């Protein structure tokens, strides 16, 4: 009996590229926005108050914003994808701890958890997704 072989077209179609990049661009834009808002030095601003309550100092707000902006930009290439995802994951894990243990707002920890899931999904797709 002759062997039956299935031919699979392994070329990536434009729609495949689009569906692979759309979530990544969304996560990048979200973290660029979130990170940039941390550079607002208005003492009445929400981030200023949150980082004041954390108690480490306002330098930590700038550091966190820089980590988020840098991490977002590092998601854009496959060579730096893992580093960027790790940076963003660390900030989201830290945000969950702050929401739970500093702000005593367990419900607010859900948003960083969702963002962490998005970062991990983008990392997984970029790292283990189909390549040509």
Largest sheet: number of strands, sense, barrel closure: none
Q: State the helical fraction.
A: 55-70%
Strand content: under 5%
- What's the end-to-end separation, in Å? 33 Å
- Quaternary structure type: single chain
Annotation field: number of helices: 5
Q: How would you sum up the global shape?
A: elongated
Mean pLDDT: 90
Radius of gyration of CA atoms, rounded to a whole number: 19 Å
The low-confidence runs, each spanning 5 or more residues with pLDDT under 50, are: none
Number of strands: 0
Structural class: mainly alpha
Following the backbone from N to C, one meets helices and strands in this order, namely: HHHHH
Describe how the helices and strands are arranged:
Layout: H1 14-37, H2 46-54, H3 59-74, H4 81-102, H5 110-128
Characterise this structure.
- The structure is a single chain.
- This protein is mainly alpha-helical.
- It has a domain at 42-128.
- Helices cover 68% and strands 0% of the residues.
- The protein has five helices and no strands.
- The protein has helices spanning 14-37, 46-54, 59-74, 81-102, 110-128.
- The longest helix is centred in the first third of the chain and has 24 residues, at 14-37.
- The protein is elongated and about 75 Å long.
Defining traits:
132 residues; single chain; mainly alpha; 5 helices; 68% helix
Outline of this structure?
By secondary structure, this protein is mainly alpha-helical. Helix content is 68%, strand content 0%.
């Amino acid at each position: 009996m002759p062997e039956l072989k299935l031919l699979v077209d392994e070329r990536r179609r434009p729609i495949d590229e689009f569906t692979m990049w759309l979530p990544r661009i969304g996560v990048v834009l979200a973290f660029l926005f979130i990170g940039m808002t941390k550079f607002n030095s208005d003492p009445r601003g929400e981030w200023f108050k949150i980082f004041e309550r954390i108690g480490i100092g306002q330098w930590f707000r700038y550091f966190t914003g820089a980590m988020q902006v840098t991490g977002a930009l590092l998601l854009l290439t496959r060579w730096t994808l893992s580093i960027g995802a790790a940076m963003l994951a660390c900030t989201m894990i830290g945000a969950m701890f702050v929401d739970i243990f500093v702000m005593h707002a367990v419900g607010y920890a859900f948003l960083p958890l969702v963002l962490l899931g998005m970062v991990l999904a983008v990392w997984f797709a970029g790292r283990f997704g189909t390549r040509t």
